[in-house]
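Exercise: predict the structure of this protein bound to alpha-D-mannopyranose.
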Amino acid sequence: MKDLAQRFPENPLLLPKDLTVSSSEMQIISLLNPGAFSYDDKIWLLVRVAESLSQKEGFIYVPVLDASGKTELVEVALNDPDLIATDPRIVNYKGLDYLTTISHLRLLCSTDGVHFEEPEGYAPLFGNGPLERFGIEDCRVAKIENTYYLSYTAVSESGVAVGLRTTTDWKNFESKGLILPPHNKDCAIFEEKINGKFYALHRPSSVDLGGNFIWLAESPDGLHWGNHKCIVKTRDDLWDSARVGAGAAPIKTAEGWLEVYHGANKKNQYCLGAFLMDLEDPSKVIARTKEPIMLPLETYELSGFFGYVVFTNGHIIDGDTLTVYYGAADEFVCGAHFSIQQILSALIKI
Ligand code: MAN
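Solution:
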């Protein structure tokens, strides 16, 4: 099967061994799901670096941040009957869920969009406080006027939620706390106000009624969100039957706001699709692709920390060219070009 993505021949662009650990007792397990933005005439990625503690045979060490931001560990014997460790991403111990890795966000920049380096003087972003004790992940970057809005997944034993920080210079950050409480992630803020209001896509999930659907919210100030509407649902028997979630900020086109999103089926296989929202009222979804616009095909997408995954939350737009930066197999950072026109042509009216 073919898809619409023109993958970079240089893929994977970044591998775990390309970056240094955040502290000596850690090891980098994966680099994934970068936010992307232009700043200072360069292309920047805000890469999710997932680390774990060096493991000892027979034990599993789960990393969490203590009150001062230092990594501490929870040690569990692998033969402990209270341990459930069937998913490489999460373990359950004595009825509580933990992540096997802890993520922080690392800034890298590039002049060609292909070769990325860590510039001096730009510190990594770490989880901060009790609601980010299991780390911060999958950050979307939206530039509105002169401010960058960083909406990311904040993880702790209290749940998975959406945190927000803002910056104008990538050196000083203002933390705005959680803007959406658990369970919620995949929050992509529109880069333009519509009729004076901020808009964002987000993905709450319920363990009971409902599902893993994409919602739209509006806000007078980018901090307080309301008037939530459920706009895109999973589709039975298709590639996005189990969960859907927004990618990066919607792309403004003459035909509407175009959103590249991820969907997964019940086997946790992740592909990308697209949908189109009305320019004046984004709660109206006008069209959606039926087939994925990108699916895991290459070896680096099919096998890794968690195989059969392409996942994006960062892109750069240049005319008709959409450069999507994505996490492959939950382990590598990759890039692909799309033609925006081609994505629009693949949409089917609703
Ligand atoms: C899922 C996956 C993981 C992630 C957790 C918490 O299990 O997306 O990669 O760490 O959720 O967000």
